[in-house]
Amino acid sequence: MPRKTACIFIALLGLAATAFADGLVRKPRNYQGSLEERGQEALIIFQEGSEKTKAMEDLILKIRVAGEAKSFAWIVPFPNEPKIGKEDPKLFQELFAYVQAKQTLKGMSGAKVAAGAARTTAEPKSVEVISRQVVGDFDIAVVRENEAGGLNPWLEKEGYQKIDDAGGVLEFYRRKKYVFACIKIASEALAKDKEIDSSPLRFTFSTGGRDGIYFPMKLTGLQSKPFDVNLYVLFRFWLNDKLSKYGYRHRGFELSYRDWDSPQCEPNGGKAYSLPEEDPFLKGFGRIFPSVTKLCQKLHPGEKYYLTNIQAYGLKPEDVRAWPDDLWLFPYYTNRDFVPYDAREGGAAAHTD
User: Fold this and answer.
1) Residue 214 in domain
2) Could you read off the pLDDT of 245-260 as tens digits, one per residue?
3) Residue 349 belongs to a domain
4) Contact, 134 vs 183, CB < 8 A?
C-alpha cells in the first residue's frame, strides 16, 4: 500500500484551567495561586504507514499560559520518543480563516457537496529520562515510567506538583510503554523577565501503527471540568464518521466542515494545498493560508488532501477517562465490516472500541 500523508490542524476551545485536551498542566510544587490556560492550539501531520513501514506524525503544539506562576510543567504522552523542534504560529490563524471563508462561500452559493474520497481497502529505573533539551524558551524532558508510582516522585523532584488520582491513567500508558514529554519554562527564559516565546513546538514520532491517527486525550480526563475540542484534519481521504464503530462520532465529535469535489475537481483526487493557485477548488484562497502552503511545500510537496473540521463540546472528564484508549481517527473505509489495521489485535489502537 503506498504511503499517504495527512495533516491535522487542531484548536482547543474553552478548556478548564490547568489542563489541555492533549496533556496536563502542573503547577510548581509550592505554588498556591491560579494557573489559567490562555490558549492552546495544535497541528498534526500524519504519514500513513504500510505493511513494511510505521506511520509517522508531526504534532505541533502552541503553548500559552497566563497566571501568577513563573513556571509550569506540561505533560503530553506519546507512543514513542519524539524529536522536537519549532514551527510558525501563523498556521493556526490561517486555517481558521480559510474554513470560515469556505463556509461563507458555500452558504452563499447553496452548492451541493459531492462525494469525496473514501478508502476502499540497561537496568530499568522507576523513571527513565530518555532525553532533555531546551527548545526556544522551553526545557523539555522526555521520560518513561517503568515502575508504578515512579512519575509523581520524579515530578516533585523537578519542582512540580504530582498528578493526583492518576494511577489508572498512568498505568494505561506504562502498560503501552508510552513516553511523556514534560515541558517547562527554561531557567534562561525566566531570567529574561519578558514574555515567553509563543512559537509552537513540533513533536515528530512514530505512532507504532499503520492507519490510525493519534491524539492524546486520556490524561485530560484527570481535570475536573468539561472541555471542548476543535480539530482541523487534512487527509488524503475522508475520515470515518459513523460508518462503523471506529468513527469519530462514537467519541462525541460532530462534523463541522469537509472539503468536497466540485464539477471542476478531479473526482476523489484531493486538493493541492502545496500549490493552491493551481487547484480549481483552492484557487483564490491560497492568499489566506501562505504559511500552511509553505509547510506543505517543505514537508510533503505534491501531496493532496481533503480538509475536515470536527468538533466536540462539553466532553466530560470522567467519560474520557473511561475510554479504552486515546482518540484515534481512521480513514473512511467503504466496507462497514472492515476493521482498521491499527484497531486489530496487537495494533497501535487495539483498545479502541
Assistant:
1) yes
2) 999 999 999 998 999 9
3) no
4) no
Q: 9 pLDDT exceeds 70?
A: no
Whether 111 contacts 29, CB under 8 Å: no
The pTM of the full predicted model, rounded to 2 decimals, is: 0.83
- Answer positive or negative: Cα dihedral of 9, 295, 5, 55: negative
With beta carbons less than 8 A apart as the criterion, state whether 148 and 174 touch: yes
Supply 95's cell numbers.
Answer: 486555517
Per-residue pLDDT of 195-216, as tens digits, reads 666 678 889 999 999 999 999 8
User: How far does the chain reach from its first CA to its final CA, in angstroms?
Assistant: 25
Question: What was the pLDDT predicted at 239?
Answer: 92
> How many domains would you assign to the chain?
1
**Contacts with 155 (C-beta within 8 Å, 6 or more apart), sequence order:** 26, 73, 161, 162, 163, 182
Instruction: Give the Cβ contact number of residue 147 at 10 Å.
Output: 12
pLDDT score of 121 more than 70: no
Strand order in the sheet with 201-206: 83-86, 201-206, 56-67, 35-47, 5-11, 227-235, 306-315, 254-258
Q: Is residue 19 part of a domain?
A: yes
Return all residues near 157 (Cβ < 8 A) that are at least 6 apart.
none
Q: How far is CA 29 from the centre of its chain?
A: 28
The chain-wide mean pLDDT, for the chain, equals: 81
Range of the domain at 11: 5-343
Is 351 within the bounds of a domain? Answer: no
